[in-house]
Design goal:
Elements lengths: L10 H8 L2 E10 L5 E9 L8 E9 L8 H15 L4 E3 L7 H10 L8 H14 L5 H9 L5
Helix pairs in contact: 2-3
Bound molecules: coenzyme A.
């Protein structure tokens, strides 16, 4: 994690996230030497709106191991674990420039939640770059119906 562009990943950051990981909710992919090459977490997120909101958090893959859809496999596993644990809203946060992550999230079925015209422009641009249909009206309907976001 510390090698990626997430900002400082220190003991404090680890402790903060350890407090939020649900039981059996931290997944790793290892290589043949058992070195960790990719990871993602199931995080409890008490949103104040629903007691059962879970976050897909800290998806990351070592640069040498990208291109094999390990991110997709980890997202699927995190989503499965959160559903199994009873979470009814599953969300994540990302940044507009993280195109490999965004395409992974869209492929697995997450739906953008667009709350401002600035976010709308960024999503439109990301979709253009990913060759993904920009469909805010459909996404809004899906989030209202309780789809993953
Ligand atoms: C997100 C991450 C785990 C995905 O790794 P991965 O599973 O190996 O994903 P891939 O490299 O297979 O990329 C996924 C898709 O994005 C596409 N992609 C990669 N870079 C891209 C770019 N710059 N523009 C458009 N598409 C891109 C790939 O072509 C691939 O599609 P394909 O399967 O059709 O080839 C990895 O990129 C990573 O660790 N990124 C840094 C950390 C990060 O941003 N985490 C997300 C935090 S929210």
């Amino acid at each position: 994690m510390a090698r990626l562009d997430f900002g400082p990943w220190d003991e404090a950051q680890l402790a903060y996230n350890l407090n939020k990981i649900i039981p059996e909710g931290w997944f790793f992919v290892t290589d043949s030497s058992r070195r960790i090459v990719a990871t993602a977490m199931c995080l409890h997120n008490y949103s104040g709106q629903s007691p059962f909101t879970g976050d897909l958090g800290w998806l990351a893959c070592h640069a040498d191991h990208r291109g094999k859809s390990l991110g997709l496999a980890l997202c699927a596993r995190v989503t499965q674990r959160l559903l199994e644990a009873g979470y009814t809203t599953i969300q994540l946060h990302t940044e507009y420039f993280r195109l490999p992550a965004i395409t992974t999230y869209l492929r697995i079925g997450f739906v953008p939640l667009i709350t401002s015209s600035e976010a709308s422009s960024l999503w439109e641009e990301a979709c253009t770059r990913l060759n993904w249909r920009f469909t805010p009206v459909i996404w809004q309907r899906q989030t209202q119906q309780g789809a993953c976001r």
